[in-house]
Amino acid sequence: MDQVDYIIVGGGFAGFFLAHQLQKENRSFVIFNGEQISGSHISAGVCNPVILKRFSTFWKSKEQMDYLETIFSEIESYTGKNYIINEPVARIFHDEAEKKQWLKNSNKDDLKPFLDPDFITLDSVENPLESGIVKNSCRIDVENFFKDMFQYFDEKGVIINDSFDHDSIDTENSTYKDFQFKKIVFCEGIHTKDNPYFDQIPVLPNKGHCLEVKIDEPIDPYIIKKKHFLFSLSDKRFYCGGTYDRFDQTEEIDPEFVEELETGLQVFYKGNYSISKIKTAFRATVDDRRPILGTHPEFTNLHIFNGLGARGVLNGTYFSKVMFDYLESQIDLDSEIDVKRFY
């Protein structure tokens, strides 16, 4: 029987960032990747400390942004790549009231590091009222991050491309099939509903659509934001997304949301484009907008790391360290993120 410190269930941001923390500290683990496509895999990967509807910040935004460079520098040490793309968010203003609110908020202590009071005019899109730059914002190369991390861990022999069978867990003896484990951490996203140990946790599926579009003309090198994001993936390939739908729980592409994305793009981009791909997946969200970390109330060797929501990169990077410190050093979790809030 193979002995491991950890079994990680789930291959999205939560699972891979936690795997990084474990590797860094020389803990043994396997990752059950499964076959599901999670919201992580098609996400924009935008790391933005500002809520762009209200020009406000959010809980622990500074701490999360401060940790971003650290964790990706650590990951670079073994993949050989840094996945941070230092293109800031450029928010197209809808009206003069938004510009005034931006300027007002840019003087607040918590927003001074992020809201640039000097507006710009983008050349490639319609922005007659100018655009505001979110300083220190960026995005990660989601596509290559998952490709490289999967390859790296697969070559180390710790990726298991099987669905996880919850019924095969022996909690008393800490075994799962051919594995003897110390802890299992479930990073299953919306699939926690199928987990008999954590199925009562209110993880809400939020369906998102995004487009990959081909644009031949040059676009300003920013994460351009009006209703949706537009930014370059590679030569002439662009990301356009995403949408939010709490009601549809099918995996089918919804033409209504594809139309919403196209309409939103055409509002500010008047050039020609063609759609190369349409993608859809589910984010794991929580009503209180806090991730879920902690331990099962009865089985102390079973744990959960979930609910990263639309800020998957920022929540995943920062709280993976919080999760590791909790598991290994018994550092108490903040009550706002502890799974105990649901018991």
From TrEMBL:
Broad enzyme group: oxidoreductase
EC annotation from Swiss-Prot or TrEMBL: 1.-.-.-
A Pfam family the protein falls into: DAO
Keyword terms, alphabetized: Oxidoreductase
TM region(s), chain numbering: none
PANTHER family from the UniProt entry: SARCOSINE DEHYDROGENASE-RELATED
Species, as recorded: Epilithonimonas ginsengisoli
InterPro entries according to UniProt: FAD-dep_OxRdtase (IPR006076), FAD/NAD-bd_sf (IPR036188)
GO terms of molecular function: oxidoreductase activity
Record domain FAD dependent oxidoreductase: where: 5-323
Name used for this protein in its record: FAD-binding oxidoreductase
